Amino acid sequence: MSDSQSAKHPFATVIAILVGISPLAAIMVWAALPIKPGDIKGHQLYLEAEHLRVEAERLRGDGQIEEADNQIRRVIELCEQALEWNPQSSDAYCTKALALAFSGKVAQAMPQFFEAHRIKPSHPVANFNIGSFYHRQGRLEKAQQYYEMTLLVSRGHAEAHNNLAMLLSGDKALDHYQSAVRLKPDYFEGHRNLANTLRSMGRIDAAVTHYQKAMQIAPESVEPCFMLALIRAEHSNAKYRDPDEAIEYATRAAQLTNYREPTVLKVLAAAQALAGRLGEAIATTEQALAIASKAQHAQLASQIDKRLQLYRKQQAHQDGETLP
User: For the whole model, what pTM was predicted?
Assistant: First the structure.
């Protein structure tokens, strides 16, 4: 490109570098599109801000909270600068909103998402977060609308598939949950929700697989352990009951709750009874009953007391029936 051409098209070289095309092609793009210098500068600032935002998430995940917070403050500053250069940057609005939400300022973040959506109605980040906002408010039809808009332009959005599935039922929900975990194999919420749906449909083997995957992803989460313990200790179909696995999962759930959750202890006792360890089952049930009674959970306490009487009767008659 000649010096005269460079002087005539001062931003053509910048376009070429950013887009990865030849300088001549950049001149053609510059001539054909209404690109303003501010658009380019604003986009550069947005890209820097987005890079720092992702880095801040990594820092927080590594426990470097102060460093992450410093990064986020810088992200917000860069986004505001980007918007001064290009007030129509939906990307900058979204990154600023994500940074604000990261800082716990959700009320300040939402207007930024709505502004991004106004500028670019198809923006997947804006649509997903607006959908989540309506979801939290219980405005489920609006939430579904925005999740579906997200997936129209971003079929690979695992979280949108998961959240949309939460608003659906049956095979429609199942399809979206399966899409979520296929797109994001280490997605805890996706595997947990898929497992719950499969269990409700009677597909127990598949449910167990996804509870186990969820437990692998988040070992400190109680729900997958508890649900596996419940299946292995108390399922109505004997083929799914397994005393050893029931005790393993229930013990893990009890440890995670410091042996202070009566519902978990109730299942642990059922696992112990299934294994023929009635003395332990009685002691565990007594502990569960004491906790439920102290918390004034009358209905739960009544259920636990009935179990306690059953275990005591079984202990007195070792040849009696175990749990159905």
Answer: 0.82
